[in-house]
Design a protein that fits this description.
By secondary structure, the chain is an alpha+beta fold. It contains five helices and seven strands, in the order αβαββββαβαβα. Among the domains are: 26-57 and 241-253, no CATH class; 58-198, no CATH class. It has helices spanning 10-55, 74-77, 132-137, 179-185, 230-263, and strands at residues 61-62, 81-88, 94-100, 103-114, 119-128, 147-156, 191-198. A five-stranded mixed β-barrel has the order 2-4-5-7-6. Strand 3 (94-100) and strand 4 (103-114) form a beta hairpin. It is elongated. The protein starts with 9 loop residues before the first helix and ends in a 9-residue tail after the last helix.
Length: 272
């Protein structure tokens, strides 16, 4: 006669329940952690939006002098309009990878030598990929003045490269604007720990820069408007956590009913 599969024993059932419980707890805690992380990200994003809105359209101020550099931080200075005057060091230009509304290309980063002997890197603007060799070979037009006055937004360094990409200074490949690494690669002995995004964003209500403008590099492209979808993501993760909790409650309820049914006394059978 064909053999029938035997039901798992009590020990096997207990092991299966324990594994399912551990998986459920791990999923629940993971979803709660992701939801909490999104709540924290939302708080950070709201603070960033408030900070940018308060500063970005203010009148430019002088660049922080060297004694104040240790106090410069994202919370106190980032996106602050600043002005600086100095001499370009065009032979030390580097290009950092960029992805903008104009497509992929590079930020042109050129040091500005200031009167006190310090240097500040200036993001002079965006250039398309086709101009990479041109700007590395001749980074500054010959007709440009020796002394330049720059107005722009103070930005903090972007260390450690881009997503899954590491900066390679020896190969002239920069995936982030890591100011400390750029300063070392360019042998700038007194480089500021921040940089300037050249160009100020347009005042609300003023005409925007024409998309047909062919001047390069294209300055004034700093992103000053940020999307904030973290609340939606947080609710999604918390919702998934509730679904896991609900599924666990349903399974536990079903198992309890099944156990009660097995332990209930069976009615005695009567023969006629």
């Amino acid at each position: 006669m064909p053999s029938h599969p035997t039901a798992p024993g009590p020990q096997a059932r207990r092991l299966r329940k324990a594994v399912l419980a551990m998986v459920g707890i791990a999923l629940f805690l993971g979803f709660v952690a992701l939801g909490t992380w999104q709540v924290q990200r939302r708080a950070w994003k709201l603070a960033l939006i408030e900070r940018v809105e308060q500063r970005v359209h203010a009148a430019p101020v002088a660049l922080p002098p060297r004694p104040e550099w240790p106090q410069v931080s994202a919370a106190s200075h980032e996106y602050l309009p600043v002005t600086a005057q100095g001499q370009w060091l065009p032979e030390k230009t580097v290009l950092a990878q960029a992805l903008t509304e104009l497509g992929s290309g590079f930020w042109v980063m050129t040091p500005l030598q200031l009167a006190d002997g310090t240097q500040v890197l200036v993001n002079r603007g965006f250039v398309p990929q086709a101009q990479r060799a041109q700007w590395l070979a001749t980074p500054l037009p010959a007709s440009a003045p020796t002394t330049a006055t720059i107005q722009g937004l103070l930005r903090m360094s972007e260390p450690d490269g881009g997503f899954l990409r590491t900066n390679a200074p020896a190969e002239q490949r920069w995936y982030s604007r890591d100011i400390a690494a750029m300063g070392r690669a360019l042998q700038l002995p007194q480089a500021a720990p921040f940089f300037i995004d050249a160009g100020l964003p347009p005042v609300p209500g003023s005409p925007a820069t024409s998309a047909t403008d062919t001047r390069w590099p294209r300055a004034g492209m700093t992103v000053v408007r940020f999307s904030n979808s973290h609340l939606v993501y947080a609710l999604t993760w918390y919702g998934l956590a509730l679904m896991v909790a609900g599924a666990g409650w349903y399974v536990a309820r079903y198992e309890r009913r099944l156990r009660d049914a097995r332990s209930a006394p069976q009615p005695a059978s009567h023969r006629p």
